[in-house]
User: Fold this.
Amino acid sequence: MVASHFLSAHQTAPPGTEDLLERGRAALIEAAERASGLQAHAQALSLYRQALELTSNPAEGAPILLKAAHAAGWAGDPDTAVDLAERAAVAMAAIGDDEGTLEAHTVLAWSLNSYYRADEAVAALQHAYEQLDSFDTEARVGLGLEMSRAFMLNRQYLEAIDVADRVLPHAERIASPGQVVDGIISKATAIASLGRVLEAGAMLTGAVDLADKYGLQAQAIRALNNLAVGQDWIDPLASFRTSEELLERAKRFGGAAWVERALTDLSSMFPSMGRYDEALAAASLENDRLTAFDQQLRRCTRLLVASVRGTDPGAAATLRSETAGWAATDPQVLHGRDAIVGSSYLADSAWEKAFDVYIDLPLPYAVAGALNAAVRARRPDLTRRALDTIDRLFPRGRYADALRTLGDSSLALLENDQQGAAAFSSGLDLLEKVAHPVDVANWRTLFGSLVGLDDPAGLAAATAAQHWLREVGAAGLERLWADGLPGDPVDQQQAG
Assistant:
């Protein structure tokens, strides 16, 4: 290692060369900063560690610990990031550097926030934040903005907005452009989560443009990620396109952590597009730097693909076993786990169980899944409850209009009012413009089941769904929705 060479040289150096360690440390730090600039964060972390080996003075070691913690977080090593940030906070406090201590707490919370531990980030920051009576330094602003992000990720949306509004005016005057953009992203995401999706979308799109103007790729990637989450409520297809753009940016600029997260997210979306091979490739488990949560999500994606393709009849039950062992307190993780459980019940035709799981989740695909499960269960009461939830949570837009039209027309058909058939067809037309292909196929087969395949419109919808299912190789879904498809899908699939 480079550090060991400097140490050996220092030990054998003649008098007058006492600055050898200092020069070696400076060279290592400079190399680490170049590596970080090139997104080689694991290499940067290694170099910072070597620089620490050449450091005995706490005043010199504390800022290196801080830089190393940041590199570890970007390298996809959250445990190391947290450990180094905690050591930096202790070191900064020991030398009486109050601003440095605030920075260390901020990096600690950033590491926790970035790896689905927002509840811990809130606990780590809240006391320090509450002691601040002004935001007149960059370190104070930075801590306040990370507090807003922690509240947002912990689903404390009003608190997140309140903190952002308190801190952002000062950030505009004294913080870096990156900090300002991060604050805008956190506030916008909290606003979106309160149902103000159009307003938030404008803010996040603006954040991407602002980040691009200043060459802030990390902030642009984060804004795209959060924009995709908000778009799920109004246009799932747009959300998918944004997620694809996010992955391409992450590959070029984002470092290992964002690349792997983007792959994990896209792996769960590809099945909804009928792109199963791409889902399996994105859900690869071969990278030894994957976080535990990424590994869990990718295993679930692989099981979901097996269920959809019909290659593993027990995949749905295995999904529930897989998620049963998840130990987490972060709201994102808990809601993600419950959504997977809901999908496993759908795969087992356990419609009412799926409804019970989905209906209380503040996720657009869960609420849409609850509506579908209610109709498949032939339960008008549950259908009305799902429609009430859509009215309460979904913003205006074509997706909400499609779901309401499908739900209302399903109610009419369930209550033997055949006038609902025309409205259902209209709902399918709306859905096709914004929803994933698998959801369109799902509702088409449900239409065939409700009106019967002797109805020309029902048969046409069912036939279109069957064509797509066979084109992408979704034999498991064809069996699952067989009551709304022409012929015997199992026999036909085996014969084909």
